[in-house]
Amino acid sequence: MRRGIILSGAQFFVERVAKYGKIYKTHILGGPIVRVSGAEYIAPLVNKEPGLLTMKVPTSSRQMFGNSSITNITGEEHSRLKKTLLTTLTPVRLDDYLPCIQEKMQEHILKWCQEGRVLGFPACEELMGDVIMEVTLGWRKENDPDGEIRRAFVKVNKNLISVPIRIPGGGVPSACFKYQSELNSNDGVGISGDGRLFDWAVKARKTITDFVRQRLHSQGDKDHVCVLDVFLAGSGHVSGEEGAGLTEEQVIDNAVTFLIAGSGTTAGALGCLLLMLGKHPDVLEKLRQELDAKGLLSPDISTHLTYDLLQSLEYTQWVIKEVLRLHPPVGGVFRQAQKTLEVGNWQVPQGWTVMYSIRDTHFTTNVFERRDEFLPERWKDKNLLEMLRKAETCNYIPFGIGPRSCLGKNLALAEMAVFLIEVARLANWKLLNPDSKMVYLPVTKCADDMPLTFTRRK
User: Fold this and answer.
1) What is the 3-state secondary structure (H, E, C) of 240-287?
2) For the chain, N or C: smaller number of CB within 10 Å?
3) How far apart are CA 332 and CA 38, in angstroms?
4) What is the pLDDT along the chain (458 residues), one digit of tens a residue?
């Protein structure tokens, strides 16, 4: 792997787009890669999935998610597993998960108000650790009393894209996982070149796996439905036995995938919601006006939220879409050429990796007027929405595109909506460094972790 990507992080890509354009060849993590941005180039490639292009996951991510994870398998097995997993994310099931999502978000936001000053991104990581553990496994944080499992989520997420070489090392302070390493914490790099960090992440992954296995052979909370219970019912798996549908390894790897993928990226998205509303108090005021009209603004009355209610909050949905446009949590997705194929006027040799750049595509498209500005109202344009709904359009792809787009999209959107409602009605906050540099690897966040002051809204 070239040392430039370790030292410069996302800036590595920015410089090369400026120099070479929307299609260029480079090497990342030891292999050749063609990086592509722009709807005009991505859309034709999406049409080649899954025949000519298939899912390509970096080796480090593959090890973190597990060989039986939905992210790593292809072909008919992928289609079968996807169908089973989607049963856990229907609107009916999302309704089942909302009470515990709402409860956890209220709990954390009120804690932030009591503390007065917090680092926004780590606080959102802690919040999503609690949420995803309960939504996925049906286990409250009392089952992880010292926070070891939730810290393991953070360790793994920080090393999803890294050099997959293990260098054993002990006596690692927890601060190393919070700030990656001294080298990386200064510039926000998320592609780690430190083999010790990858070794620690592998150990953290095992900690999560053992926790999931323990839950699989016991009972979760009985006061609400969780993803794992729905997944087991849909797969024909009986607790403690080999199910008719999936093996225990498949169940565990995909539960681990939910935990990892559902914590880090969504934490980044929640942080960016706080960032953009902190920078734009006029947008926060319009959001509160909508909530007030729906009877959702009182800081003393908690209304039970439903999936249909979340969908009816038009301005709230606009804010979410606009934040994801400007600050998509994930910068790009990886595919692999099964055969030599063409993109633009260039050939991609068989076996090479192709990366669709989400962030660069959002930043360069001409579909959005005044695209550098935060304008939630742009989403009321019905012509824009109709154009973006067309299959060949790839101008707005915060959750990826094509048959391997993010399975957890609707869950993440629901979590963002609940968070907006609860933070807007319960708290006031102030950015202590509104001009902080943004970093984009492994997820989008402020380089200084976004220091904030929180007060209880009256």
Assistant:
1) CCCCCCCCHHHHHHHHHHHHHHHHHHHHHHHHHHHHHHHHCHHHHHHH
2) C
3) 12
4) 333 433 344 455 566 666 777 898 887 766 788 999 999 999 999 988 888 998 888 888 999 999 999 999 988 888 889 988 999 999 999 999 999 999 999 999 999 999 999 999 999 999 999 999 999 999 888 889 999 999 999 999 988 887 778 777 543 434 333 333 322 332 233 445 556 788 889 999 999 999 999 998 887 777 778 999 888 886 655 444 444 467 889 999 999 999 999 999 999 999 999 999 999 999 999 999 999 999 999 998 888 999 999 999 999 999 999 999 999 999 888 999 999 999 888 899 999 999 999 998 998 888 999 999 999 999 999 999 998 987 678 999 999 988 889 999 999 999 999 999 999 999 999 999 999 999 887 889 999 999 999 999 98
- What is the rounded CA–CA span in Å between residue 331 and residue 427? 30
| Distance between CA atoms of residues 45 and 38, nearest Å | 11
- Number of Cα atoms under 13 Å in the Cβ half of residue 178: 12
Nearest of 257, 245, 243 to residue 212 by alpha carbon: 257
Burial of 13 (C-beta count, 10 Å sphere; 0-12/13-18/19+)? buried
Structure tokens at 119: 């680092």
SS3 of 35, please? strand
Q: Please state at what angle helix 281-293 crosses helix 314-326, rounded to 10 degrees.
A: 150
Question: Which are the contacts of 114, defined by CB distance < 8 A and separation ≥ 6?
Answer: none
Among 410, 419, 423, residue whose Cα is nearest residue 227: 410
β-strand partners of 118: 452
The answer to whether the CB of 31 falls within 8 A of the CB of 2 is: no
Alpha carbon 183 to chain centroid, angstroms: 24
The CA distance from 308 to 184, in Å, is: 42
**Cα–Cα distance measured from residue 445 to residue 307, given in angstroms and rounded to the nearest whole number:** 27
Q: In angstroms, rounded to a whole number, what is the distance separating the alpha carbons of residues 139 and 456?
A: 29
DSSP 379-448: GG-HHHHHHHHSTT--S--BTB-STTS-TTHHHHHHHHHHHHHHHHHHEEEEES-TTPPEE-SSS-EETT
Query: Using the 8-state DSSP alphabet, how is residue 160 labeled?
Result: S
- How far, in Å, CA of 53 to CA of 55, rounded? 7
Instruction: Enter the pTM of the model.
Output: 0.89
